[in-house]
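Sequence of LLM class flavin-dependent oxidoreductase (Pseudomonas tructae).
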Amino acid sequence: MKFSLFVHMERWDEQVSHRQLFEDLTELTLMAEDGGFSTVWIGEHHAMEYTISPSPMPLLAYLAARTTTIHLGAGTIIAPFWHPLRVAGECALLDVISNGRMEVGLARGAYQFEFDRMAGGMPASEGGQALREMVPVIRALWQGDYAHDGEIWKFPTSTCVPKPIQQPVPPMWIAARDPDSHNFAVKHGCNVMVTPLMKGDEEVLDLTNKFEAALANNPEVARPQLMVLRHTHVHAAQDSDGWKIGAQAISRFYRTFDAWFGNKQVPDNGFLAPSPEEKFKERPEFDLDNIRKNTMIGTPAEIIARIRYYQELGVDEFSFWCDNSLPHAEKKKSLALFINEVVPAFR
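Predicted 3D structure, token representation.
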């Protein structure tokens, strides 16, 4: 089992500066590297304070210079917002800067809020077309001259400059949920990243079953890697109420996600208030006990048992998602417990 860190600068308090958040993200990454994590993942989001990353590339290039072993993962680049030549070139340059430690995840995008601002109001549901067209193009550009005449992009003979260090191509990941996405990823030799969001381990089982079905559909393809991304909060065994800190914070995170995803309000200088708790009275997944049960909240022993189950299902990488609205000190405490008491059980 490999472990990775999924992290953004997230701002809940206007008194905390962006510079401080940048330093906090760096500190968590250095902790993860010292703890033997394989990768740090940073995604792409626009115009929202609660997940700050207009591009993962500058952050990852900086972290490349501060680290020596951990891989630098763009997780994920939103395909409809980019040109394939730019994705290929920037990823290859990061691979050169990091001496072969770049990994890239691609996604179709989710927030209509972002599509309204970045893609002229295109329906977010149509983002998959860009994703499917982009993946083979990037692969071809990394390997040499290539001309493209697609439905979305057209360009004459071009190549990626620079070329990535990792050959024949660096690791590429696809964020997948439905069977078609799993099948596309496996068919094109891409690793698969999944997130159950607020659902429990039955959703992890369902997602791994979709991955296994895609493997069966493509027997000629070497088995790619499967990563599960989960909101994670570890508390000490002697702190019987420690789970509540994590559950309340993750509730706040998802109620804020609901406000952004609903796209019904105008943000105030990049902030949206979380949707009110009353809205979710009939939604059992928002009950704090269910958040505790469904997301990765618990003592080290409880979390070890659940990740062992994921390992039995065929999961190759567990990604510790630490965006959760908690202050930096709480995130550090949780990550340290995970590194010191969970990771050794898998070594």
